[in-house]
Each structure stands twice: as structure tokens, then as C-alpha cells.
């Protein structure tokens, strides 16, 4: 069984509904403002189900977590989704509302069966990390301003 940690943010209605659902594998979490707490949460998880926004995607990529996209809003999120799929960095959960197999079983099977997508994802995420800058923002600014 998969445990779901659901970031409810400040949505108290969602938090209450999940808290009272009686499902032990669903853990609703209120807004987390502490960076260290969020970091610990990212370290605990095996993957993330999200929309293709900015911060969550960036954190998940940095932490090398498999990313499952369930929906993208028109505009920037659709653009992000196309680029992330092209790079092999996300799995789009197409038509999840119409699936006959529960989503948790489907995702669990991807992990359990060491699916081709998981293997490809590990390679894609490694390539992605190779392209990241090794210099931090402060060092970059100092280099640009003071070294000519």
C-alpha cells in the first residue's frame, strides 16, 4: 500500500475531509512554512503527484524524485509539461479519472516492476543534473561583476 502525504496548504476544507476520511494511508498536511521541514518531507517521499508548476517541480527534480503529473492548466503549465515530457523527467497520468485500476496500484506497479519508464527516468534525471550549473548564485554574481 502506498502512503500519501497530501499538502493541503491553507485549504482547511480539504485538510478536514482527508483527516476524517478514515484512510490510514492518507496523511494530510497543513501549510509548511519551515524550509527544513519541507526538505525532510522531500527526503522521505519516493515520488510526487503534482501539477507542472515551478517550485514543486524544481524541488522534485533537485531531489531526483519521480514526478507524476495529473493535470496541467492552459498556458505555462502546458508548456512546462511538454518540455518536461520531452526531457523524460515526468510521467503524465493521462485520463486518470477514467482508469479502471486505482492510481495508487498503477503507480506502485511502476515501482515494483522496475518499469522501463523508471529506468528511463533515472537516466533522464542524471542527464538533467549534469547540465545544472555547479556555481552558486553568489559566486556567479561575484564572477560576473568582479572578474572581467
UniProtKB/TrEMBL annotation:
InterPro entries (UniProt xref): Glycosyltransf_28_UgtP
PANTHER family assigned to the protein according to its UniProt record, in alphabetical order: MONOGALACTOSYLDIACYLGLYCEROL SYNTHASE, MONOGALACTOSYLDIACYLGLYCEROL SYNTHASE 1, CHLOROPLASTIC
Q: What is this protein called?
A: Processive diacylglycerol glucosyltransferase
Q: Which organism is it from?
A: Halobacillus karajensis
Give the encoding gene's name. ugtP
